[in-house]
Structure formats: C-alpha cells, structure tokens
Design brief:
279 residues, alpha+beta, Porin, 2 domains, 4 helices
C-alpha cells in the first residue's frame, strides 16, 4: 500500500507545473515580486526573458547621486564664503600708508581666490558623478538594458556648457536640432575670458556645432567639432571635443556630458575640461 501511494505522489509531482515555468521560458513573477517588476514596455521588449533578465535595484544610482551632490554642493558652499572672506579681510587690511599691510591684504585676497578656484574645480569634477547617479535613477530598468531611441529623441534643443582651461573659463550657448539619437547639428555663441599673452583676454566666438553620439545606451561616448570665428580678434576659432554623454530620458534628448576639449583662437591653443547640459 505504501509503495502504491508513493508512486501516485511521484507521478503527480512530475506533472504539476512549477510556479515559475512557462512554455516560452519568460519570467513569471510571484506576488511578492510585483513591487520590483519591470514595466510593460520592458516586458514587451524581451528584457524579462531568461537568462538575460537583470532586475533593476530599488536603490539603483542613489549612492552615486548622493556622492555627486555632496561634491558639488559642498564645494560651492565652501567656495562662495572663501572668496567673500578673502575679499573682506583684504579690504579691511589694505592700507596706502603701509606696504606690509598692503601685502597682507593681497595675500588674503589671493588665498580666498585660490580656495574658491579649487572648490570650483572639485564641483566640476563632481558633475559627471552627479549625472551618472541621475541617469541611473531615471532608468526604469536595469541600467545595462536601458535603450534610448525613437521619435522622442528627435527635437529642438538648447545646449548649455562650461569649460575651464589653464587660462580661464568659457561658457557656451548652442541651440540646435537632434536629428536622431546619434546626431546633433546647431550653432551658437560663446563668451570666454582667457588671460594669456597670445591674444586679447575677452573672446566672443560664433560657431557651428556638430556632434555624434555612439550607441543608444545610457552612457554613450561622443565626439564634436565647432568651427567658427572670434568676433573680438576676427581670427578663426575652432574646437574639437570627445567625452561621455549621460542620457536622462527615454522620451527626449535631455542629457548631460563631460568631455576634454581642444580649442584654438589665433595663436592660442589650449586643452580644457568641459561639462554640459541639454534642455
């Protein structure tokens, strides 16, 4: 009798389907897993098929985002008081009757500017970290499975950029059109103050701009060129850059990026670190 019961149970266990078994081998989520399930679009794209499905972590990108915000906000929070304190102490100490007092005042101001400049560079270095965290948090699926393409990636956009080289800063304003998920074409104007002996410090370049992003993933390498003319010196202006783009939206070309830029104006040739944002 026992042998008969054992055989019957063995047959039933063999034919009963497993809770996670399907004919097309797609992943069936148990009730306790619904909170972490990918959206319907991800399922329809086949992201949840075995064995390629990678579950999106609930805290994906949060740690990196916090580190980036701390780097940027703390650096700015130190830079502004340092510059203000250095200037205040310098103005309070300076005296036309004493050379020593004047030297001390200059030292205070220089120290404030140095601390502020260092903090500003740390904030710029924290920008790529912040963009990485924001991109990871914006993704609805595991970041390696995220893809950014389609009609939403084609539209007018405005690029806001800042670069810093050994001679000074430069800001860029570039409207243009995202032809597709890879190509951007536009043109704009820039304002630079470059304290070098190879030309006028103030530069106002007008330029055309083209850039190509490679791939449709969250992190996409890109290259760009900007030929133009400097209105202040009437000299040729040109720049070329290579960097990484951090895509932030599946329905628009909104993104951030960080790059190394080589640029020339007249006799001036320099290398700069550039960050940017696409609206």
């Amino acid at each position: 009798m026992k042998r008969i019961i054992f055989c019957v149970l063995a047959v039933l266990l063999h034919w009963l389907p497993s809770p996670c078994q399907q004919a097309d081998s797609t992943l069936v989520l148990l009730p306790e897993q619904y909170a972490e399930a990918p959206d319907s679009a991800a399922l329809s794209n086949g992201l949840a098929t075995v064995p390629f499905y990678r579950e999106r972590g609930l805290s994906q990108g949060e740690t990196i985002d916090i580190i980036g915000k701390v780097m940027v906000l703390s650096s700015i929070g130190v830079a502004i008081p340092a510059a203000g304190l250095g200037t205040f102490l310098g103005l309070m100490t300076i005296s036309s009757d004493s050379i020593v007092s004047s030297l001390i005042a200059v030292a205070f101001m220089a120290a404030g500017v140095q601390v502020a400049a260092t903090c500003f560079l740390v904030a710029m270095a924290g920008y790529p970290v912040l963009m990485t965290g924001e991109a990871l948090k914006a993704s609805k699926v595991h970041w390696q499975d995220a893809r950014y393409y389609g009609p939403g990636q084609k539209r007018m956009s405005l690029l806001l950029e800042l670069s810093v080289c050994r001679y000074g800063p430069q800001i860029y304003l570039t409207p243009g059109y995202h032809v597709n998920q890879h190509l951007f074409l536009g043109g704009g104007a820039s304002l630079a103050y470059l304290a070098s002996q190879m030309g006028a410090p103030l530069q106002i370049p007008l330029y055309g701009h083209a850039r190509v992003s490679f791939g449709t993933g969250m992190f996409s390498p890109y290259i760009g060129v900007s030929p133009g003319i400097d209105l202040m010196s009437n000299c040729f202006y040109g720049s070329a850059e290579a960097g990484v783009r951090f895509r932030l939206s599946e329905n628009s070309p909104r993104s951030g990026w960080a790059a190394l830029e080589g640029k020339t104006t007249g006799q001036l040739k320099t290398l700069a670190f550039k960050i940017g944002w696409s609206l």
